[in-house]
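Thread: S-adenosylmethionine complex, take 2
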Amino acid sequence: MDTATHERWLADTRRFWDADTEFVARYRRICSSAAFDAAQDEAELLRLWNEETEKALALILEGIPLQAAWNCLEIGCGIGRLIKALAPRCRSVTGVDLSERMAAWSREYLADAPNAQVLVNDGRSLAAFADASVDFVYSHLAFQHITLFEVVDDYLAEIRRVLRPGGWCRIQNWRDAPKPVSESFKDMIRPLLGRGRYRSSRCWTWADGKEVKFGGVVFHPRDWRRLLRRHGFSVSALTVGAGHDFWMWTTFRRPE
Ligand SMILES: C[S@@+](CC[C@H](N)C(=O)[O-])C[C@H]1O[C@@H](n2cnc3c(N)ncnc32)[C@H](O)[C@@H]1O
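Output below.
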C-alpha cells in the first residue's frame, strides 16, 4: 500500500473510532450490543461492562500458558479494559490503538495500573516495539473491523517480528460465512439498480471516498491458516464460533 492510500485509510478509520464522548466509546463502540443499548442506568452499564470483560479475558487466555514475567501487547485496545484486567497477572501490558481519543481516555482508566500503557499507532505497524521483545500478543474486537487485507498482512509481519521465538499470539477475527438468502438476493438486484455489489453485511472493504463501516475483511478458516503459515507461524488452535457464531479465535506461535 502506498503512503498516500495508507494516510487516507487511516484518516477515514480514525474518524470512525474517534468517538465524541467516553460514554459513546465505551458503550457504543467498544461494547456494542442490544443489552448495552437497553441498559437503564450507569450501574447496569458497568455491570455489563465488567461481565463482558471477564468473558473476553477468559477467551483471550484460553490455552495460553501465561507467566508472571511476560510482557504482553494488545492490538486495538480501545480505552484499555482488557489491559487493566490482564495487568495484575504479568510484568507489563502495552496496548496500541489508532484512535488518539481512545488512548487519551485510557490514561485515566489505567491510572492505577503502573505496568500498563497505551500508545497511538498508525493502524498497521508495531514500530514502538523492538524485535523479539514480546511474549504474548493478543487482539479482541479489533481485527474484525480492519477494512483492508494489506493492513492485516502488515500486522502479521509485525507480530512475527516483535514476538520472541516461542512467543504466543491469540487473535479473534471474523470468519467468512455463507451469505443468507436475503443478501444473495440483494447482490443480484443491486447492480440492476445501478448500485455497487452488496458483498456481506459483515464485510466492507475500504475504498477512497467510501464511508468506513463496522465490519472488516473476513477470512475463510482455510485461507486464514494459510496466511498465518506464510508469515512463519505455527497454528496451535483455531476455533470457529466461540463467543459468536461468526467469530474465529486462533492461537499461533513464532517457532522456537
Ligand atoms: C471494538 S473496540 C475494542 C477495544 C478493545 N480490544 C476491547 O475489547 O476493549 C476496537 C478498537 O480497535 C481500534 N482499532 C481498529 N482498527 C485498528 C487498527 N488497524 N489498528 C489499531 N487499532 C485499531 C479502534 O480504535 C478501537 O479502539
